Predict the 3D structure of the following.
Amino acid sequence: MLNQNKTPLLDALKANAARPHAPFYTPGHKQGKGISQPLADLLGKAVFRADLTELADLDNLFAPQGVIEEAQQLAAEAFGASQTWFLVNGSTCGIEAAILATCGTGDKIILPRNVHSSEIAGLILSGAIPIFLNPEYDPVLDIAHSITPNAVESALQQHPDAKAVLTVYPTYYGVCGDLSAIASITHQYNIPLLVDEAHGAHFAFHPQLLPTPALAAGADLTVQSIHKVLGAMTQASMLHVQGNRIDGDRISKALQLVQSTSPSYLLLASLDAARQQMALHGKMLMSRTLQLADEARTRISQIPGLSVLEMPSLGESLGFVALDKTRLTITVSGLGLTGFEAEEILDEKFAVTAEFASLQHLTLIISLGNTPADIEQLVQGFTTLAKEYRRTNLTLNNNIWQNIVRKLSHPLHFSPREAFFAVSETLPLAQTSDRICAEIVCPYPPGIPVLMPGEVITKPILDYLQHIQAMGGFISGCNDPSFKTLKVLKI
């Protein structure tokens, strides 16, 4: 057992920030002496004294032999991994590295069609060929869940030469599929299971009340956004591996391609500190967070016109076997409002800001940083919303999305890499139907692509995206943020 009280990287950074010396190295502001005054007024000078480069005592992220290596070993033990890498370019670079380390050009990888855009970037960078699986879909709630073990098994029977399986656990809504069964099936083919666990870094610290962590469920590799649900700074994440199905050297080499060569030690130290906090106090912090979430869930579910996403009946859905109770998804369409309208009202009128909105829902993250006062403000905001802003029933055309969900996994005409680098042209939206898409297009948040390079653009997909835009959402990923034009492969 390692001493989880230690913070080797944080301590080294603190000592170097306080050491009197004449700095003739980057960054240019020289420990805050040259920083803009308005920025110093906002953040204070202390943070800039610690904004240091790869000094001898601070180790090297890409060849760690000192305090970074020790901090990563402590993190591996705390999160249940055999090896851990710190990430300063977010979970995005971890997902990209995972795909690069396991798949080469032309290799097949099995993954859900509702993956984040970072997985698509990994496909483009690696040249891998996606075998997409449709997730289970709840047509009443208009929510996609996880892929099922049966779907993974069927895909592997059809594509036994696949090099890896990747899944999302949990989804943006906190829904977890049967990861243990998926791991068992994947390992029968002696290939690794990669997990996008960006929103599940807290699972390891209260397994009795939270879903099983991905590594404990049998994943070979998992990527976690420590900043999303724990106490690290934005963009600070971790990649964990266990077992011998993945070559650690390939992970290290892949990360050198997708991480900055000038890593922020502020981010790295925040990972060290967040690990120590959870290793020492994680269960207590998660217990308190879950109590706050339970209070919010109970009180909001009693407000007329609102409902809260809960676990389905036992055995009802293999794509939904566990729910992260710190993630609160509230259906607001019973108030005659879209999620986008409710989000705007709550933010502007009641200073309650949600994580993201969709057509029928608002999704909220309740974490170790929330307080009882936050929960009270949240509940009062929803109470007033239901009383004062209720309209006649809202009519939503769910058939558009249902049809897309059923058809999203149509064959690619080109690999994402081929299409991304092919010669393209930009056309008015009305002229793009039946053409091959040359860019990533996704309603945001949560950043799940509806179109990607190499796929055929269809009228129902365009209708859906325009519908999202008209209802108050916006389209991300494509070159034209107004979504009046699209890039397509040039004929």
